[in-house]
Amino acid sequence: MNRTRRLGAVVLTGAVVLGAGCADGARPELTDTTLAPAEGAITTTAPPPPSVPVTTTEAPFAQPSTPDGRSYPAVPAEPEAAAARLHDVERLLRAGDPDDAEWADLAHEQQMLYRVIGRNTEWIRIAIAEAPEALTTVIERHLAARQAIGNIGHGGEPPVNVPAWEIIEPLPADELRSLYEQAEEATGIGWSFLAAINLIETGFGRIDGLSTAGAQGPMQFLPSTWEEVSDGDIDDPYDAIPAAARYLVRRGGPDDMHNALWGYNNSDAYVAAVTHYASLFRDDPVSYRAAHAWEIHYSAAVGDLWFPVGYRVEEAQATEDYLDTAPWSAPPPPA
Fold first, then answer.
1. What pLDDT does residue 51 have?
2. Which has the minimum average pLDDT: 9-23, 50-64, 228-242, 309-323?
3. pLDDT tens for residues 170-212?
4. CA atoms within 13 A on the CB side of 71
5. pTM here?
6. How far apart are alpha carbons 230 and 228 in whole angstroms?
7. Whose CA is closest to 79, among 23, 24, 133?
8. Which end of the chain is more exposed for a tag (fewer CB within 10 A), N or C?
9. Among residues 100, 107, 238, which one has the least CA distance to residue 178?
10. What pLDDT, in 10s, does the model give residues 9-29?
11. Quick one: angle between helices 191-202 and 173-187, nearest 10?
């Protein structure tokens, strides 16, 4: 597409995007230390003063919740604990029901664990080395995709403003998969490649950019490119998904998906991220359903901001001003 990317760093949705996950700032345990008097020190036989309980004025951190009562998932501060929690969450997702509200919260926690672990090679090593055998390849591919997303160039310093977006509910996972599969039948482009592009570009359509400049719609077409592959509605996934498949065919797919994806976004890291997610979704249906439940996170200078459904900012504004009205968007300290 040879385009200038407008979305910065989603999701991804890391689409594509980042936060903090280190042990710095973890509160030390209070200990009661009694020092023996130095040799030769003067002592008295006076009774010791009564014991006084240790008190502190530091209030425990309370993460603000969204208006509908949801909270930003916390990630353990130590790599071993984060890895163990990731393994537990993966097992719970496989044992649970995707139609339960709690399942979506687990998927959001999974997303944050991968985002944080994926920024540090030692955390990645531990998460893979200690993974149950049945989950090893799933975790490897998730983390490979996260590393690739981290290598996608977004130009310059992390943003100090929040973007002019509206975050909306995407189409249901099964409805989107049906659209991907219909496009595959018509063009030969694998459904999971279309799903991976949709995830990385807009979090499966959650991001509705309010600017008319640059790429648009759930599959992020420039209007000039859109006219080459579709006469439909650039914002409608029923039109945008098959148009993306047709564009990939024009760029060499399905026979040469590397070149086709490169044509979509001229970045080796982007090609790698899409390919890893496509392989994962194709082989592991739970990973596709969980990724569909992921939220929109945005890598800002202040850290990894969460934009839940209902976020709407008409014009880019200073992060601090936004957080004054939406404190739940800022990450909690490591748990």
1. 40
2. 9-23
3. 999 999 999 999 999 999 999 999 999 999 999 999 999 987 7
4. 10
5. 0.83
6. 6
7. 23
8. C
9. 238
10. 344 443 333 222 232 222 222
11. 130
Token code pair at residue 179: 């659209």
Question: Among all chains, which residue has been given the structure tokens 């995707």?
Answer: 98
Q: To which residue do tokens 């310059």 refer?
A: 156
- HEC assignment per residue over the chain: CCCCCCCCCCCCCCCCCCCCCCCCCCCCCCCCCCCCCCCCCCCCCCCCCCCCCCCCCCCCCCCCECCCCCECCCCCCCHHHHHHHHHHHHHHHHHCCCCCHHHHHHHHHHHHHHHHHCCCHHHHHHHHHCCCHHHHHHHHHHHHHHHHHHCCCCCCCCCCEECCEEECCCCCHHHHHHHHHHHHHHHCCCHHHHHHHHHHHHCCCCEEECCCCCCECCCCECHHHHHHHCCCCCCCHHHHHHHHHHHHHHCCCCCCHHHHHHHHCCCHHHHHHHHHHHHHHHHCHHHHHHHHCCCEEEEECCEEEEECCCCECCCCEEHHHHHHHCHHHCCCCCC
Look up residue 114 and give its amino acid: Y
